[in-house]
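User: Could you check the structure of this?
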Amino acid sequence: MALAWMPMLNPKGPFNTAPVDVFIVAAIAVVVLWAATVRAMIRVPYALTASALAATGLFAALASVAPMRGLVAVVQEAFLLAWCAAIVTVGRTPRALGFVVRGWCLSTAAWSAVIIATVIAGLERVPGGSGGVGHRARLWFDHPNLAANYLLVSLFVMLAARQPRGRLAHAVAVFLVLVAIVLTGSNSALSFLPVGGVVILYIRTRHSRGPLPAVAVSLLLVLGLGATWTFVGQPMIARAQEAESSLIRHSVGRGEKSANARVALFASQYEIFAEGNLIGIGPAATAQVLDERRAEVAKTPHNDYLATLVERGLLGVVALAGLIAAIFIRVVSVQTLSPQWLQAIPNPPALAAACLGCALTAITHEVLHYRHFWALLAVIAALYVGSQDAGPPSLRLVREP
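Assistant: Sure, the predicted structure tokens are below.
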């Protein structure tokens, strides 16, 4: 239920809580009780690196202009880590993990159908949700780009698990999600779709043909995409700024304006660090500091890497690098699975594509606090742990880097 209701992020409650958090809290509690009953091992992946990142946030929050916001941000990170651990604990067998992933994929297809039906019905927004500028779809997400990232990650999970399993049903579900991504008008999601395809093609070709054919095929595809962008994409963007469709004007047509705003925001943030704030200004304090400085653009960081540097200092960057390394090790390890685990995730290269998509999206958005991002990390960690574990489970807390 928690995975199925991940789009329910509005209306907001205290401390940026959302309706889906009720299901996530219930899921965590039930998993702990279930694990105690059957004496199952409780796995906490990424515990050491995530804890280090949280510790740098707490340290920076002590001298922050918004210490309470910093504390709330760290609590949110602990909550997301517990959510990740709950999924990993449940997905200890291929059958269990397959059941969890199947629910995620089917619900994403259903939400995509809701988005499409809303547009066909001529509604400006999903009933009970919020509409985006230019009629960009967003369901109950905070903004259309967040909705697009959820759909993008879910699409690659769908491709990895090949859910729904029937060929026709799977093709229909993938088509629904692709259309929904287009309706969000997110340039970052749309631009990454072909990149994700290249990643999947490279890994699969490398496994079947070897490294040289994989590089050759990937290079040819990249060159083709580059030529398409040069001769088709750029002229299309120029025309999109004058398009009659509000969706096109506020998605493809706003690319240059959005990029300029990001550059100004990032420059203002870096100035804060360059002035000697080596320990960071504290989590979630960027917007307030920029506003007090009367910066040209006073918003939240919109960049996980720069946000970590500015808000948590150099030690925070080291902790983030450790988290990225832990994710990378797991992603690489799960590319070769036993036949037993391939029943749950027949196409693991798609998980690598999803992670790369989040890594690139983190340049222009803050994905570290996305609930679906930690669900993705949980699926990868469950594969990593499950493919290495042997012997009967026991009830103990296992912290991992």
